[in-house]
Protein: Ribosomal RNA large subunit methyltransferase H
Organism: Alkalibacillus flavidus
Amino acid sequence: MNITIISVGKLKEKYLIQGIDEYLKRLSKYAKVKIEEVPDEQAPDQLSEAEENQVKQKEGEKIFTKLSTDQYVITLEIEGKQLTSEQFAQKLDDLATYGKSKVAFVIGGSLGLSDDIKQRSDLAISFSKMTYPHQLMRLILVEQVYRAFRIMRGEPYHK
């Protein structure tokens, strides 16, 4: 599988970078995984709804430049479908089985994803009803992708 994780914003926290690097190293025997960062839009803390949409639109345009038409796009959204780790593994296994071996995961910025990106999405998933910082979601996502491959291969994983 070829997996691309497209994320808004530059990761600066050393502990997150180290955790992500560790899971990317572990994942390398299962899939080709790359992370694409797109710059986030600078915005003040207090925005009108129109200004928020404008920020999400600009970030969405940058995300689109990283997507290809042959990728199966999975967006991380609060409103998305919640899956168990086993269901997530089954979904990735099904994609590989049915010729959808190019998968892109999209993590939006602090305001979320633009409507255009949500419409391009083939599957919207949510890791929780809780809100997580988008930088932390990168680490959580790569861990779950690693766990999914372990489950698919029948290898032990921490429950």
